[in-house]
Write a structure and sequence with these properties.
The chain is α/β, with parallel strands linked by helices. It folds into two domains: 45 residues, no CATH class; 81 residues, Sandwich (Immunoglobulin-like). It is built from two helices and eight strands; from the N terminus they run ααββββββββ. Strands 2-1-4-6 form a four-stranded mixed sheet, with no helix packed on it. Strands 3-8-7-5 form a four-stranded mixed sheet, with no helix packed on it. It binds copper (II) ion (CU). Copper (II) ion (CU) binds next to loops. The site of copper (II) ion has 5 residues, from loops.
C-alpha cells in the first residue's frame, strides 16, 4: 500500500518543483500581458477563412438570380445594402436586365451562359424586367 502511494506522489512533486520558480516570476501584470497577447492572437486568427485568409463577411453580400425558361428565379431577392446581385442566363435565348423605373444601368444583351453583376449601394426596391421579353419581371429589395 505505502509503496504504491509513493509511486503516485512522485510526478506531482516534480511538477510542483518545476512550476514554483516560474510562479515566483509571474506577477499579475505579466499574466495580464500574456493574456492580452493570447487574446489578441485568438482574435486575429478567429473569423478568417482558412483557405484565403480573408476576413469572413458578416452576412451574405452576394445573391444570384437565375434566368431560366423565361423566368427570373428567385423573382424577388432581398439583399443587404452593398450586396452584389448576379444574373446568369441559363436560357438558350438572350435576355436583357433593365430597371423598371430607370434606377440602374441596363445590362448588355446576355446570351446563353452569360452573366451580369450589379452592386446595390443604397436601400430601396428595385423592380426590373427583360427588355426583350417585358413579361419577365423581377425585383431586388435592398435593406
Ligand atoms: Cu428575356
Amino acid at each position: 500500500m505505502s509503496a504504491s502511494s509513493t509511486y503516485y506522489r512522485q510526478p506531482v512533486t516534480r511538477c510542483v518543483t518545476v512550476l514554483t520558480p516560474l510562479m515566483k516570476h509571474l506577477n499579475t501584470s505579466t499574466l495580464a500581458l500574456v493574456m492580452f497577447f493570447a487574446l489578441a492572437f485568438l482574435g486575429a486568427s478567429h473569423g478568417k477563412d482558412p483557405e484565403t485568409g480573408a476576413s469572413a463577411p458578416p452576412q451574405a453580400t452576394k445573391a444570384e438570380v437565375v434566368i431560366d425558361n423565361f423566368n427570373f428565379s428567385p423573382k424577388t431577392s432581398a439583399v443587404p445594402v452593398g450586396a452584389t446581385v448576379r444574373w446568369i442566363n441559363h436560357d438558350s435565348v438572350p435576355h436583357l436586365i433593365m430597371s423598371a423605373d430607370n434606377q440602374f444601368q441596363k445590362s448588355p444583351v446576355l446570351k446563353a451562359g452569360q452573366s451580369f453583376s450589379l452592386t446595390f449601394g443604397s436601400a430601396g426596391s428595385y423592380a426590373y424586367f427583360c427588355s426583350i421579353h417585358p413579361r419577365m419581371t423581377g425585383q431586388i429589395i435592398v435593406k
